[in-house]
């Protein structure tokens, strides 16, 4: 028994697997095709799903398989197609919440917009429009969805988007329903300019019928006849007989309105015959009612009575009360002709009641649409206000961000400017320092050279004097001594070199000892260089005794005792 169960389970799995492969094979030829190329196949598939939608498990498994095939092939449009079919089925689920339907279709619209898929976005918007119109009676919202889709329709041709003519013709019918004949004609005419595939050529007849009926409402009967006659000449459609009957009925109506009853009767009769063949009792009732009135006007009371009873039966079968108003008026006229005032009154009252009821229903719908329009406008105003607030916040944020960026740029600019200026200043200071160091080094060398030269020349004089016993009046020795004497011009050069080595020394010397003579100042400078008295005497061009005299005067000016060392004073300045 256990083995039998396993075999049965395996068999079921095999069947499911075969079914899955079969389903996948069905969808493989749809992959990476244009919408127009797979349009008919998708329509057939959708019709099959709607016919078997009660078997939800099979239906949704088929959709999952379709989407899996699309995703595996990376065909994003086909994946969206699967989502669209699913949304179309969702609308038909009994008792489903409105919010769920709107949310699912709106999500599909957003996804189509994100992927730039015009045809899915248009169809999804029209699906939502269909839901609003037929399921929730939210007519204004339905028009809103069309107006959102309309600009997108202008971007696609009928060849690319086979539903273009159908979509436009539906909008023409919607405006006709609300007695907006101008827009009914406008969109229906635009539907006539859109290409249609062979199987849908009848959609142009729908548009021409809407235009013709709109002209009838505007009492432009010649214009109406033009479009009804165009339907008669649109022979290349498979249901030509049906459309021929409809056009004949409409032409019969315009002939009736003109009072041309001889022309109207055969056209209306042809319409009735065709309508009964296709079981369109509402259309038959309309023409039978007009025929009854014509018979009455021709004083064919018996024919009028027979025909109006047929009309009433057709109205009963169709379930549409609207044609009864005109029919009951004819009943009243016929019974008045028979002098049955009671039935005349009854049918006149009934006609008036139906007229008032129809008018009230229409007014209610108009008021409902007006209320919806007001709500939509309030909603739009709220959205605009929110959008404006968001825009202001975004603008404030952007301004703040710009200011922050500007501040950062300015700070960076000033930092860079300061940095480069500081670096340039530092470079100049470094260059000056290097030059100062070089000047100081050169001055030191020159001063050392000067000091060394004085010492060497003095030593040479002493050596010559000691060796040859030459006295101080000897011309050669005197000439040599002249070379070592520091002239005024040389003193200026010496002082410059001295100031570079001992910066500020001479200035400080003048501040501390303001009464010094030039000779004493020179003595202090040479003493700073540690020259001996002989070297000082040679440099100053005076005798050693004169140097001692200068030193002595300095001691007195400084109030130094004999035992005090003058070198300490020289070093302390």
Describe it.
By secondary structure, the chain is mainly α. Among the domains are: 24-127; 240-318, Alpha Horseshoe (Serine Threonine Protein Phosphatase 5, Tetratricopeptide repeat); 485-572, Arc Repressor Mutant, subunit A (Orthogonal Bundle). The protein contains 24 helices and no strands. It has helices spanning 2-28, 39-51, 56-72, 76-91, 98-114, 118-134, 139-153, 164-177, 181-193, 202-217, 221-232, 240-258, 261-277, 281-297, 301-318, 324-337, 341-468, 475-484, 488-501, 505-512, 518-528, 533-540, 544-558, 566-572. It is rod-shaped.
Class from helix and strand fractions:
mainly alpha
H/E series, N to C?
A: HHHHHHHHHHHHHHHHHHHHHHHH
Q: Give the radius of gyration.
A: 59 Å
The total count of strands amounts to: 0
CA-based shape: rod-shaped
- Strand coverage percent: under 5%
Helix content: over 70%
- Uncertain residue segments: 1-21
- Name the average pLDDT: 81
Tally the helices: what do you get? 24
Task: Give the biggest beta sheet.
Answer: none
Distance between the termini: 127 Å
């Amino acid at each position: 028994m256990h083995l039998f169960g396993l075999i049965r389970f395996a068999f079921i799995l095999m069947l499911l697997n075969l079914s899955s492969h079969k389903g996948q094979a069905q969808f493989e030829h749809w992959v990476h095709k244009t919408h127009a190329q797979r349009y008919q196949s998708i329509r057939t598939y959708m019709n099959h799903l709607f016919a078997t939608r009660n078997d939800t498990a099979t239906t949704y498994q088929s959709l999952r398989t379709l989407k899996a095939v699309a995703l595996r092939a990376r065909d994003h449009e086909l994946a969206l197609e699967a989502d669209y079919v699913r949304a179309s089925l969702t609308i038909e689920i009994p008792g489903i919440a409105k919010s769920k339907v709107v949310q699912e279709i709106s999500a599909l619209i957003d996804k189509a917009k994100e992927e730039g898929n015009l045809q899915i976005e248009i169809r999804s918007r029209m699906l939502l429009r269909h839901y609003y119109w037929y399921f929730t009676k939210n007519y204004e919202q339905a028009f809103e969805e069309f107006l959102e889709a309309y600009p997108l329709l202008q971007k696609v041709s009928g060849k690319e988007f086979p539903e273009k003519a159908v979509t436009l013709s539906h909008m023409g019918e919607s405006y006709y329903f609300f007695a907006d004949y101008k827009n009914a004609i406008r969109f229906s005419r635009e539907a006539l300019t859109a290409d249609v595939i062979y199987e849908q050529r009848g959609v142009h007849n729908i548009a021409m019928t809407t235009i013709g009926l709109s002209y009838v409402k505007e009492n432009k009967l010649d214009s109406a006849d033009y479009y009804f006659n165009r339907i008669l000449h649109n022979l290349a459609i498979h249901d030509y007989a049906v459309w021929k009957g409809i056009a004949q009925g409409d032409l019969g109506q315009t002939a009736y309105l003109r009072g041309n009853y001889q022309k109207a009767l055969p056209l209306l009769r042809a319409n009735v015959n065709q309508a009964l063949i296709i079981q369109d009792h509402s259309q038959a009732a309309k023409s039978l009612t007009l025929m009854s009135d014509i018979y009455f006007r021709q004083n064919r009371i018996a024919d009028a009575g027979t025909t109006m009873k047929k009309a009433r039966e057709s109205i009963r079968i169709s379930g549409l009360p609207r044609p009864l108003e005109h029919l009951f008026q004819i009943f009243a006229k016929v019974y008045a002709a028979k002098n049955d005032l009671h039935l005349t009154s009854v049918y006149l009252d009934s006609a008036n009641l139906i007229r008032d009821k129809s008018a009230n229903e229409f007014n209610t719908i108009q008021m409902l649409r007006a209320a919806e329009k007001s709500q939509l406008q309030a909603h739009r105003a709220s959205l605009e206000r929110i959008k404006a607030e968001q825009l202001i916040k975004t603008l404030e944020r952007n301004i703040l961000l710009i200011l922050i960026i500007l501040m950062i740029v300015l700070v960076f600019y000033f930092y860079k400017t300061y940095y480069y200026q500081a670096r340039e200043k530092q470079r100049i200071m470094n260059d000056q320092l290097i030059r100062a160091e070089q000047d100081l080094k050169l001055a030191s060398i020159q001063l050392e050279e000067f000091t060394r030269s004085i010492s060497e020349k003095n030593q040479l004089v002493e050596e010559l004097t000691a060796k040859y016993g030459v006295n101080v009046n000897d011309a050669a020795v005197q000439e040599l001594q002249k070379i070592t004497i520091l002239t005024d011009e040389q003193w200026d050069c010496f002082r410059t070199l001295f100031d570079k080595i001992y910066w500020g020394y001479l200035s400080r010397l003048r501040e501390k000892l303001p009464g010094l003579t030039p000779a004493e100042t020179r003595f202090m400078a040479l003493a700073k260089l540690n020259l001996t008295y002989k070297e000082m005497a040679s440099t100053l061009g005076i005798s050693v005794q004169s140097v001692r005299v200068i030193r002595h005067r300095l001691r007195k000016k400084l109030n130094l005792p004999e035992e005090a060392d003058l070198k300490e004073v020289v070093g302390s300045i």
